[in-house]
Design goal:
The chain is α/β, with parallel strands linked by helices. Helix content is 20%, strand content 17%. The protein folds into two domains: 13-174, UDP N-Acetylglucosamine Acyltransferase, domain 1; 175-220, no CATH class. The protein has helices at residues 41-44, 56-61, 104-107, 177-186, 193-198, 200-203, 208-217; strands at 13-14, 24-26, 31-32, 46-47, 70-72, 77-78, 83-85, 121-123, 128-129, 134-135, 140-141, 146-147, 152-153, 161-164, 169-173.
């Protein structure tokens, strides 16, 4: 019996250690917990992105020019079966008479490409993507957001929003506006590791004011290169 990629639902792996597609950029510590689907993040979660092992030769040829990229920040938690849709509209134009992507080799020179890019899909820092949620092409998910299980996210998500349902809707913010403002100013995910470790007692609490007080005492509060 083959060894499971994810031997337990309680664990996962750091995504950046397993990425091969040059069009995926993932920050430190962000992890994927894929026990219930048993495929690597890149294979299970990222759909229709040029540069994978199947499309790499075509992408390297340059015939597609620039392609949309997937950019994921630091300290993100990604649950089993998340789907991140890429490749814009994948050539299907619902505003045309037919949404079918006709092949010019069969249907002639009158065929036009229906492909439209959506722009990079960006998942911010400290984002939690719940099991089997779907992120549509070109969506920007703000820092600190939480996307609920099986939510379908079709538009940009504000920082620290909690989004659920299909289509995804914001049901609340995780913290009051003044605390969101402080968190976005602090950008704790960019702190040097020793300073972040020293703040763990506060990080593992809801005391944002204390974290902000600690931040104001730091020598270089937003530098981690």
């Amino acid at each position: 019996m083959a060894l499971s990629i994810f031997p337990s639902w309680i664990g996962g792996y750091e995504i950046k250690q397993h990425i091969t597609n040059p069009n995926i950029d993932v920050g430190d510590y962000s992890y994927y917990s894929g026990y219930y689907h048993q495929h690597h993040f890149e294979d299970q979660c990222v759909h229709y992105l040029l540069g994978d092992k199947v499309s790499n030769e075509a992408w390297q040829s340059g015939i597609f020019g620039e392609v949309d990229k997937l950019i994921i920040g630091r300290f993100c938690s990604i649950a089993s079966g998340v789907v991140i849709m890429m490749a814009g509209n994948q050539g299907h134009r619902h505003d045309w008479i037919s949404s079918f992507p006709f092949d010019f080799t069969e249907f002639g020179d009158g065929v036009k490409s229906g492909f439209e890019r959506a722009g990079n899909t960006v998942i911010g820092n400290d984002v939690w993507l719940g099991a089997e949620c779907v992120i549509m092409p070109g969506v920007k998910v703000g820092d600190g957001a939480v996307i609920g299980t099986r939510a379908v996210v079709t538009k940009d998500v504000e920082p620290y929003a909690v989004v659920v349902g299909n289509p995804g809707r914001c049901v609340k913010k995780r913290f009051p506006p003044q605390h969101v403002k402080q968190l976005l100013e602090m950008k704790w995910w960019d702190w040097p590791l020793p300073q972040l470790k020293a703040a763990m007692t506060i990080m593992c609490s809801a005391d944002i004011d204390s974290l902000y007080g600690y931040y104001q005492t730091m020598d270089s509060p937003s530098v981690d290169e």
